[in-house]
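Final report, closing paragraph on structural work. Over the funding period we assembled a curated collection of sequence-structure pairs, and we close with a single example.
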Amino acid sequence: MTEEPTRERPEGRRGIYYGWWVLAAAGGLGFLGFGALIPGFLVFATPIKGELGISSAQFAFVVGAAWAVGNVASLGAGWLADRYGGRMLVLAGGLLCCLGFAAVAGVGSYWQLALLYSGVAALGRGIGVAPNLMTVVNQWFVRRKALTMTLLNTAFAGGAAVMVPLLAYCEGQFGWRTVILWTGGFVAVLTVLATVVIRSRPEDVGLLPDGERPATGSVGRGRGQRIEPVYSESDFTLRQAVATPAFWLMTGAVTLRIAAADALVINQIPMLVWKGIPEEQAAYFLSATFLAIIPLRFGMGLAAMVAPSRWLLFGGMTVGAGAAVLFLALSGYPAAAMFVLSIAATEGIATLGWLAVGEYFGRRSFGSLVGIMTVSFGAGSLVAPVAAGWVFDRTGEYGIALMAAAVMQLGSGVCYLMARRPAVSRG
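Its predicted structure, as stored:
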């Protein structure tokens, strides 16, 4: 029989619920690690293409394949995190990601770049960084899920906004190989420090989500002693969740959203140059994009506390689609502003999509469900950016790619709007 939790607040470090320390460690690793190793890699596009003699489509394939491999790896990682906890996955995956990333500093050919970044680094990212950090945080909070998931995903965007211009500056000063090597080493140290703090579930230290704890007086139930995970009736099993239309609508929505976003983000610098922005300024517009995402993610997360997230998701995707069309119609800095708006609008509401997974289906199978969704959008992450780069290499323009991205953004919004919270079937 499940123990009824009390409302008494357990003491963490200095009286703070330990889940906040877990969130801080995950957010710090997401801020610096995710920002440096994933969007930060895009600032090396020009020197890598020039030195290795590869095309825009080939570089887009390396990045898209890396995201696809990481997404596939997250399927197994999500299953393991649900059953055994995500802490050791953060450590093992994070270090593997850093090893592959740092080794890129020594590449001399295209196949070496693909093997190390799209293979080793991507595999580690999918196991330990994203979405595993979300899985860990989702375990620690229920009532505060909207706030904490918003803070974590805002940290991801904030890290990109900071690390992209910082890496661009360092690349100009020291060269891309030196910067990549030192970045991989720095994030490896950060990964070890984060896992010292992170625990997979509150039950691992005798707590329950949101700072509740089992009733006192029970043998073996004190703080600091592991207890079995406690799930409510609203927590779906994996089989129950995948049997709902809501899950597949959300999977379709995130697949379309990320395919469009990856096509735009991975090709952002050449797209901006195509519209008349000097190449040396294009990296800073990439940073501005992630900077604009920060307040949007935080604001949309707070808005989800009072408004249905599916309507907010539909609105954000619609704005993104309209801005992509305006980018195609304009040129120069006005076009660049629309490009930033298109990505910021669709990525600014990204937290709500993952938040909805946690709110709709609970804690029990969150990692597995997100893993299935990442495998689905992994195909889009690979195909869409490469297709956009291929079109540009042959036609010298991105018009078709931009219209396709706008259609995908709008389709994603419609899928999100149709996905309603399901009821648990006990039959």
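The chain is about 75% helix and 0% strand. Residues 1-13, 217-222 have pLDDT under 50 and may be disordered. We thank the funder for supporting this effort.
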